[in-house]
Specification:
Layout (H helix, E strand, L loop, with lengths): L3 H13 L8 H4 L3 H17 L8 E5 L5 H13 L1 H4 L3 E6 L2 H17 L29 E5 L16 E6 L8 E6 L2 E9 L8 E7 L3 H10 L15 H17 L3 E5 L1 H13 L3 E8 L14 E5 L5 E4 L9 E4 L4 H14 L1 H4 L12 E4 H8 L13 H4 L4 E5 L2
Parallel strand pairs: 1-2, 1-4, 2-3, 4-9
Antiparallel strand pairs: 5-6, 5-8, 6-7, 9-14, 10-11, 10-12, 13-14
Helix pairs in contact: 3-4, 4-6, 9-10
The protein binds S-adenosylmethionine (SAM).
Length: 402
Amino acid sequence: MLGVDEYNRLLAKKYNQLTKQWLTPVEIFKPHYSEAVAKYVLHRYMIEDYGKGYPLKVYELGGGSGTHAAGFLSYIKKNAPEVFANMVYGSVEISTALAAAQRKCVTTAMQTVGEEHASDKGKKCIKKSNPVTKIPYERVPYKVMVRDAIDRHGWGDTNPDPCFVVALEVLDNLPHDKVVFLKDEWMETRVFDTGNEGNDHYQELLDPVSDPLISRAMNAVGVGDSMDNSSFSHHFSAKTVLDYLASVINAVTGTPNTIYLPTGCLELLETLHKCRPNHRLIAADFDSLPGVQMPGTNAPLVATQSTGGKTKDLDSYLKQPGSADVFFPTDFEHLRILDLCARREGVVIENEDLLMDFRAPSHVVTTKAFMEKWADLDSTKTRSGYNPLAQDFANTKFFLSG
Ligand SMILES: C[S@@+](CC[C@H](N)C(=O)[O-])C[C@H]1O[C@@H](n2cnc3c(N)ncnc32)[C@H](O)[C@@H]1O
């Protein structure tokens, strides 16, 4: 590929040919993106777990059509066969149809690692590598479970074995709660069905915040004053400023201040810390989204299909429920704090003995920084020197837990 113009042209073509709802970096840069994640995980595994005799255990959340799992497993198989021989890869996917697609994609890739037939060219999930080794279906270390990753019960008993949890472009899909500063208090939002036809089919109802999960999320990100945030107060000098600003904006403009809280993400983190206390999370997502029409902090992009395969951004999520995609940006600083709070809520308090000693502070890096360190950038460099794996998707980041 020549350079940025040709890359953009090809990407636009891919978007036009899109047969599924998304075209993520995993899909665009397969297998290189997934290989970078695999290299990072393998590096940490070798340092932190291998010597203690633990097998590599990976959970992928929201694996979509399986492209990442296929790339990840192929990388480990090729580069660390002794690790691959004992590893476990559990995929947690909420969609039955996507789980089936994943299973097919991964098993096909595992059975074709090392070969590429002329007729396979351009097909998904077929990875070129040597040597040719087919793995019998029953020995592919991959299992997909159809369930909501947030749901604690799905994870079974607390398991303190070290593991990695990978969530690529999933946090933006998780539920959020809208809170509004009205007069002098924070209100939570419920959406209800009016039974009317047309644009007012769904409406919002505001009540003073009473949902404990919303309260925990507000407390974590420093909004509101009714929660105990004593142990984290040093993070939140912005807390009172935010409340003050909310009231000022409200008084001056008459417009309620609105924040979309990542409550689904907080609940997921609480679940992970409780059920897999020694997990290390690798989460990649968009930290900002272009073209958001809705007002409010952390407001989502609501996109619906328009004519000619183009999308149209809407100014409300109430207008076309069921046919519009809703994407939330991820505030990675908040994510870091949510993770700390979730850890505090989790098994740590109940049984500190279960915690292992690899914990370092979590950190957030740009995709560029992550790829520069872990990807094989020579494979994705264009002739002009432009490297889309590192340079495109500048509005995405990685969260890497300690
Ligand atoms: C945008 S796709 C990303 C797919 C893939 N990770 C990638 O990067 O190409 C989001 C995926 O998350 C799944 N998902 C959304 N919410 C989920 C949940 N609560 N539990 C498990 N999977 C979920 C969706 O079904 C979908 O497969």
